[in-house]
Design a protein that fits this description.
Length: 254
Amino acid sequence: METAGAAGQPVLELTGIGKEFGAIRALHDVDMQVFPGEVVGLMGDNGAGKSTLVKIIAGNFRPTQGEVRFGGNAVHFYRPIDARVVGIEVVYQDLALADNLTAAANVFLGRELKRKFGPFAFLDHNAMAARALELFGELRSETRPHDLVKQMSGGQRQAVAIARTRLSNAKLVMMDEPTAAISVRQVEQVLGLIHRLKEQGVAVMLISHRMPDVFAVCDRVVVMRRGEKRADKSIRDTSPEEVTALITGAKEAA
């Protein structure tokens, strides 16, 4: 399936997306576009529909209504690997890292490089470490391939998770609360990593409750409430106060 987008074409386009779980309507008529090299903040209170929307994009759920287009093509995901194949990666809040392994081993977890000697195959640790070093360099991270994940700071752990998305040459990276429960210095490191992805032309969707982070790094903010999109605005054209009002329902739409 081809997914390369032309200049000015959205990498992701959602049209009329709805999702029902029996009698419960989780999403209703959601339209959204995300462009290459753009960072879009996705905000909303608990139960607003953010997680359901992300899971539809990531292939965990199929929409009840509507169309998903990626790179200009209509796509139908039946499982997360289908979304990953076309270039969609998700960095979940728990990061899904193996603490007892090195940074390089985590980057290549499930995608290990091997060397063959006759009928035998062995893990190519040197090749994986070299490629991981290149990826950390591209992200301007101080993380080193042989560092153990269990000894890393929150910012370094995020670098490992993001490097894993670059291994697959992702076109869209969705990040779920990447700055939750880490120090101020580590928050700056993570926001720097998001800037690196943007510079490389990768689209980023930042799911966050942290208003300062969204306004620091995002180009646009999309606000969800009760399963509906209530706003989709350029960061330049809104304010934390307006976004808060939209999240809480003090303002219905913008």
